[in-house]
Each structure stands twice: as C-alpha cells, then as structure tokens.
UniProtKB/TrEMBL annotation:
It comes from the Bacteria. The lineage of its organism: Bacteria, Bacillati, Actinomycetota, Actinomycetes, Pseudonocardiales. This is ABC transporter domain-containing protein. Keywords: ATP-binding, Nucleotide-binding, Transport. One of its GO terms (molecular function) is transmembrane transporter activity. PANTHER family: ABC TRANSPORTER RELATED, IMPORT ATP-BINDING PROTEIN. Residues 3-210 form the ABC transporter domain. One of its GO terms (cellular component) is plasma membrane.
Length: 211
C-alpha cells in the first residue's frame, strides 16, 4: 500500500463547539490503484485530501505514505509568467539538463510536446490541467492527490483528463486519489468511495446509479 489512512479523526473549531470533518476514516490505496472520492459539499472530501497529503495532521488515527506525494489542483494553479516547461522545472528546483529532459519527457507523455514553451494563457483549460499532472509527476510521487480535475472542463475534455490520470496511474504505478463531483467518468476508476458527514462508505461503483 502506498497510502494508508487508519481511523483518522479531524475536527475544526466552530464557535464554542467543533465540527467533525473526518470521523474515523480509513482508506488504503495501493500502487497503480485509482480511487475516486465523491460526496456532497461539506462532507469532508477536501479535508480527506489535506490529511492524506499531510497538509493537516489528524487529531487521532494515522496517515502513512510510502514515498512522496504529488498534488493536482482544481484549476491547475500554474504561475502565469512561466512556460509549461518552466512550471515543471520549478518543481525540479534546479533546471539542470537531466531535469529538463525529464520535464520534456513528462510533457510529451501528457500530450503537450508542441506546447512546452507556452504560458498558461496560451493553453486551453484541459492543457493546463495536463501541465498540472506532468508537474505533479516531476517529484516521482508514489501517491497522487487530485482535487476536482474536471470542474472547469466540458464533458469531453474532462473525460480526457480522467483518462490521462488513469494512464499515469498505470504507467507510474502511483496510488491515485481523486476528489470529484463528476460521476460521468467513474467507469475509469478502480473504486469509488463516498463521503457523507465526515464518514467514508466504501460503495463500489456498482452502487452508483446505472446509466
Ligand atoms: N478551516 C475550517 N474551519 C472550520 N470548519 C471547516 C474548515 N474547513 C472545513 N470545515 C468544515 O468541515 C466540513 C468538511 O469540509 P470539507 O471542505 O472537507 O468538505 P468538502 O466535501 O470538500 O466540501 P466541498 O465539496 O464543498 O469542497 C464542513 O462542514 C466544513 O464546513
């Protein structure tokens, strides 16, 4: 397993009481496994990603990650002044020849060979998201945490991004956890779990409405 969450408890202060965002949540994701987290607004999905990425420490329970974590954000969060290539080199820190070659290889892998020298405003929403995926892979993560990757995209482009995530999960054998409201692409994941009021239910994709 690359990602282990065991009995994780997380609460936030809310006036003189506390709101429970994660209520003894356990989740294990294996290398090469692609898991989707769905659930209504406020159910705890972002909290789950933040705890899994060790951005927030839980009050109780344990979080174990084998190796490093890569993040892909909702709007890709690219720096406006940098080219696609430089977005990746910034993560590589140095930009030496090896990093450059690796960044170019990753951009080619996500289908952006022609766009390496473009800045974010010269890229489509789907292409920006692809840069975000390539950037997350720069650190050779064993866990990939992805927050609403399709929210700014139409159906077709959204699906292409989820297909890309499926492919990189397989190729790089990362444990991928994607938070999504978008139920249209869940056929591409291995497993879907649902958050409700801070609790995780391991509903298999068979529990989803059939089309
Ligand atoms: N910093 C905070 N302080 C207090 N309460 C918080 C804080 N962050 C989140 N919460 C509360 O914790 C619960 C879980 O929030 P979280 O953001 O994890 O849900 P979510 O499922 O990601 O929601 P959305 O789909 O709207 O992004 C909610 O009740 C929310 O109001």
């Amino acid at each position: 397993m690359s990602l282990h969450l065991d009995e994780v408890l997380l609460t936030y202060p809310d006036g003189d009481r506390r709101v429970t965002a994660l209520d003894r949540v356990s989740l294990h994701v294996a290398p090469g496994e692609f898991v989707a987290v769905t659930g209504p607004s406020g159910s705890g999905k972002s909290s789950l990603l933040a705890v899994a990425g060790k951005l927030i420490a839980p009050e109780a329970g344990s979080v174990r990650v084998t190796g490093t974590v890569g993040f892909v954000f909702q709007q890709a969060n690219l720096l406006p002044a940098l080219t696609a290539l430089d977005q990746l080199l910034l993560v590589g820190h140095i930009g030496g020849r090896q990093d450059r070659a690796r960044a170019q290889r990753l951009l080619a892998e996500v289908g952006l060979t022609e766009q390496v020298n473009r800045r974010p405003h010269q890229l489509s929403g789907g292409q920006r998201q692809r840069v975000g995926v390539a950037r997350a892979l720069m650190g050779e993560p064993s866990v990939l945490l992805v927050d609403e990757p399709t929210s700014a995209l139409d159906h077709e482009r959204g699906r292409a991004v989820v297909e890309l995530l499926r492919r990189v999960t397989d190729t790089h054998q990362v444990a991928t956890l994607v938070v999504t409201h978008d139920l249209a692409h869940l056929d591409l994941v291995d497993r879907t779990v649902t958050m409700l009021d801070g609790r995780l239910s391991a509903a298999g994709s068979a529990a989803l409405p059939r089309h």
